[in-house]
Amino acid sequence: MSVQEYLDKHMLSRKIEDAVNAAVRAKTSDPVLFISNHMKKAVSSVITKVKARQILDSRGIPTVEVDLYTNKGMFRASVPSGTPIGMYEAVELRDGDKGTYLGNGVTRAVRNVNEKISEALIGMDPTLQSQIDQVMIDLDKTEKKGELGANAILAVSIAACKAGAAEKEVPLYKHIADLSGHSNLFLPVPAFTVISGGKHAGNTLAAQEIMILPIGATRFEEALQMGSETYHHLKAVITEKYGAHGCHVGEDGGLAPNISSIREGLDLVKEAIGRTGYNEKIKIAIDVAATDFCIGAKYDLDFKSPNKSGQNFKSGEDMIEMYKELCNDYPIVSIEDPFDKEDWEHIRNFCGLGICQVVGDDLLMSNPKRIDRAKRESTCNALLLKVNQVGTLTEAIEVVKLAKDAHWGVVTSHRCGETEDSFLADLSVGLATGQIKAGAPCRGERLAKYNQLIRIEEELGDQAVYAGEDWRQS
Ligand code: PEP
Ligand code: MG
After folding, report:
1. Helix (H) and strand (E) counts for the chain?
2. 386 catalytic, yes or no?
3. Pocket test for ligand 1, best of 59, 83, 435 (most atoms within 8 A of CB)
4. Percent of the chain with pLDDT over 90
């Protein structure tokens, strides 16, 4: 490594300049001592070690965990994983060796952290998030992070963010807010998954999730209570109707009775909300994940039924009519992926009706090019942010900016394969998204996020603002 490369890697030129500027400002009589003390502090605030390992996510599938060390301690992060939707997402690097974890091992990604990323980052200042992320992007050299793996890169990016917050001695959400230029912090409205279907559950419901949004709560803590109570009332409603076996849960903790229509699920949820007495304080959202049952130009709402009659194939127009009726009959405020990810025309037509928030998840894949197109064509009016589809925190911040510039809503989202890492909670507060989707108000990996929001609210005290009625923040 040349002297110049060494100076650049450790940002030494900038640190020396900072030290000299500080000495000038302080009008010190002993600039050498002053600058040397300043430099000692500056060079001690660096990444000293990065170590990755393979752990299991909530589905029992391998994922990457990273421990990043600075003089302030060890900072741990792990990455979630979902059902990959295609070519616009950053690459989740898996080993592919069918004899080990059915091909799902991530030892290559782990090795990339331990052998390549680690070497490149040691000596860097953890508060310089964008430089750290850029070093990894440059090291990877591919458009979709296929060389090192977005799972490797993101785990390090998040761990570095935690280390950066510790270095600045500020809470994680505050550091994220600084990085993204937000001064207003909001506790997000949670979208609790209460019924699971689609590819997340073994029942016959085509749509993936029915969620409840406690928009009328005054604090996040109250929202969590409303969510939990509704969930337990729903369990009782389902048990009465379908027996206890109707209360098995899907990937993200939603109850999964063997229902076959969205309306059947909505009736159950409506009944449960009625029993809580919260009524209009709780609104409903649906993630249809319609890409999973689009066949040709039709939508097969019976795609999971063993004895399907073929009667339930719907055209895009039929689906629009169905959504109009559902929004009329139930307090639905948000629908995610109402059509296939390439059915831009019907999503745009539905969104144009202005009935509810229309969220692009599979449609956008958190990809800037797809977001740009959707903005230009007014295809949807909200982004589902899945950070692992982007691959670094810095790029995720950029993606949120793109959405907010268009006055879209932003939902910070978990994946169906989650870990006990609670980073998403701080991210949603720091990015002031106003909405978070982290699954049911049950299961440890989901509650890791919701419980962290309770702690953040407590820490903010009088400064805590629950997004509530302003959940869209647009
Ligand atoms: C979703 O579709 O919104 C979701 C979280 O699921 P997955 O993680 O399977 O993409
Ligand atoms: Mg989705």
Report:
1. 17, 14
2. yes
3. 83
4. 86
